[in-house]
Amino acid sequence: MPKTVAGQPDEDSGLVRQARHGDEQAFEQLYRRHRNRVYGIIWRLCGGDPALAEDMLQEAFVRAWTKLDSFRGDSRFSTWLYRLAVNVALSDRRIRVRRLEREMALEGRAERMATGAKDVYADKNMDLEQAIAQLPERARTVLVLFDIEGYSHAEIAEIADMAVGSSKAQLHRARKLIREELER
Known about the structure:
The protein contains nine helices and no strands. With about 180 residues, it is mainly alpha-helical.
């Protein structure tokens, strides 16, 4: 059984091995095992838009299926999958922001509107999810993965492809921005 970096066995390794050999039922078990957590991460990265999060969830698992051979087993399958899902959500977000910037001549509105159909600045009594949704991309990613999903900075560094120090700095930034927004 493949070991992770920490030396712990990966409970998904048997299913991954079967899925690599075309076993769709094994992959379906992986999907069922990780669907809710992946959805939660993506939902927050998509600014709380459930339809977009569902689309991104499906895209993440389609990509996982097609890229399963690229999983080397250096980390847990779940870490690889969550990194892939984060990349899918962030890539889609960047595409939508660029599209909005082209379509909207008003500077500064593209980032705000990319969080979904609702105007996140409209309500003075903004709740926490809205405050998270308006965070800059990297700060939001780290905040979601650390404070909400419970990942360590080392795991976030691997998932988000950043240095551990950057993860810590982005978390500090995100918390500060949320505090400021909620105090308004």
